[in-house]
Amino acid sequence: LCGEPNLLSDECPFVPPSIAERYKVGRALGDGTFAVVRECVERCTGREYALKIINKSKCRGKEHMIQNEVSILRRVKHPNIVLLIEEMDTYSELYLVMELVKGGDLFDAITSSNKYTERDASGMLYNLASAIKYLHNLNIVHRDIKPENLLVYEHQDGRKSLKLGDFGLASLVDGLLYLVCGTPTYVAPEIIAETGYGLKVDIWAAGVITYILLCGFPPFRCSEDQDILLDQILLGQLDFPSPSWDNVSVAAKELITGMLQVDVEQRYTAVQVLDHPWVSDDAHLGNDQQLSVAGKIKKHFNTAPKGCSTPAGVSVITITPLDKERQVFRRRHPQDVGLIPALSPADINSESEDYSPSPSPTSPSSADTVRSPTSPF
């Protein structure tokens, strides 16, 4: 195995025979606290995947967190979601063959684009809302939708589509959830309020992302004090400041307003997002002029050139639920007492009724990826 030139490997890692028989396993692409990701090429097709190897000795006492993510990944098969291809469990390691997406993340796509318009932003939301609709139909909430977890798949014909990854905070929903978790910029007000929440926290996050797609900065922002940011989110006072929003269509603003409703009952569903004219009807996209958001994204977010650092598609796979424990947070207001404990089986349902869709081929075709017919995305 090590002698094969297309492995690009400086070592020959041990993998179970069932994996080695089907895949050529090569060099490490990414190395995290709990997992390493290696090159992985399917022998019979030449398709490239990523092999995620989780060190089980580092996860003792928290195995349920890994099991929860894998149980959800087993259920999901959608062209706008990074897929689990197959798995192999051994005494000391868990091996996951994952879809490898090489096109960078959402911000990479915008900041590297020669021309970026409302039509492109609409296509991106179409992809994201398609993934969310699919998950919500399975009663799965992602809980950490953000640009870093939206990867760009580049099709052979030059078109692109988004794939949602990182299910480390995902959960089946069979009642209200209370764990305060997520990424502050994108977290929904009902999570912060600790009044219980459900599927629509994903719509809020998608609304924040759509806002950023059109102006380059988030709707609620305070870099100095996280509590001030969370207060802004709780109030949900949305504005579209001039001049950044002067050339954005009314339809886009109406859609974002519907997605960022503090009242969960008034907030759009994924179906309503997909049915909105700004997503479904080209005539509501306004003019086709370029949006000047790349510079603002670079200013407001950490989008410096990555150089030789780990590619976005590998970083998303390298993360485990254990890495995300720091995303369980609590407000620092005086009336708040105590700390949120580490994730437990009660917070994350590791086993539940199987909502799995009908089986799909082991190697999904990139031609099946959902994308807007009027956009590269």
From TrEMBL:
GO terms for molecular function: ATP binding; protein serine/threonine kinase activity. Residues 23-279 form the Protein kinase domain. Pfam families: Pkinase. Its EC number is 2.7.11.1. CDD domains: STKc_DCKL. It is an enzyme of class 2 (transferase). It comes from the Eukaryota. Keywords: ATP-binding, Kinase, Nucleotide-binding, Serine/threonine-protein kinase, Transferase. This is non-specific serine/threonine protein kinase.
